[in-house]
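User: Continuing from earlier, I have the next pair ready.

Assistant: Great, send them over.

User: Here they are, in order.

Assistant: Folding the first of the pair now:
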Amino acid sequence: MSEERRLSAVSNTPAGLDATIVGWGEVLEQRDPGTWSHCRRVAAFATVLARALTLDEEEVLAITCGALLHEIGKLEIPEAILRKPAVLTAEERLIMREYCQRGYEIVRKASFQDVAEIVRSHREWFDGTGYPRGLKDEAIPLGARIVAVADAFEMLVQDRPHREARAFAAACAEIRHWSGRQFDPRIVDVLLNVPGEDWKRASSNI
């Protein structure tokens, strides 16, 4: 299956937008291998959550695209930091955190404003301790709150360089633990009530 057809199967995006996103994704994958696959899985999970919340298809589309592009700002992070095998220094962590704002600028220039806001805000925490702006509660765009949960869930259920994937039940328990702090409780409740088979089906489409 071509990259364009694989993306359409996950996100239902219009053809022109597909081409733009796939182009960015291919460049991102070259710069930080594995990131584009991660973004596609997050998009699949975010789409499941958005539809479970019964959002209209225009909102679902923006959320799917925001999830696909949530790490695009890493194109502008120095490779020495992006691929550093050791723990980042405090200064390097601050530079890495810039990827949200940098991603926002990239996507905004392409006139995808709703998507850009999701890209900028997906690392905000529900309790106001996230970044880059320290937004709190519903001041964080709904799409960004959905992508935040989908992103964390994907990282838990997939193998990572430093640990093996968590079991489904353990991943759900971890997300529940951070409800009301890192994550919007309403979205956590939705995630916990989505049948496990739906998550497996979403993963299998990648």
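And the other member of the pair:
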Amino acid sequence: MRVRMLLAAASLVVLSQAPAWSGRPVTEEERMKLVAALAAEGCSGGEMEFDDGLYEVEDATCPGRQRIRSDF
């Protein structure tokens, strides 16, 4: 019985933290800075988010290269 209660409590803690594991959309100001940084590298597009303390750009297109994923 005690093990079940412990497992139930642990699962509630884990489930309550799930939203913290996913990234958040970037703000318009952040998006403008990321677009400028990508343009400086000759890249464009991609999906942008802020996750784990980093800005992430997935599937950006760069000339002469395949799509890239980069963390800033």
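Worth noting for the second one:
The radius of gyration is 19 Å. Strands lie at 24-25, 47-51, 54-60, 68-71.
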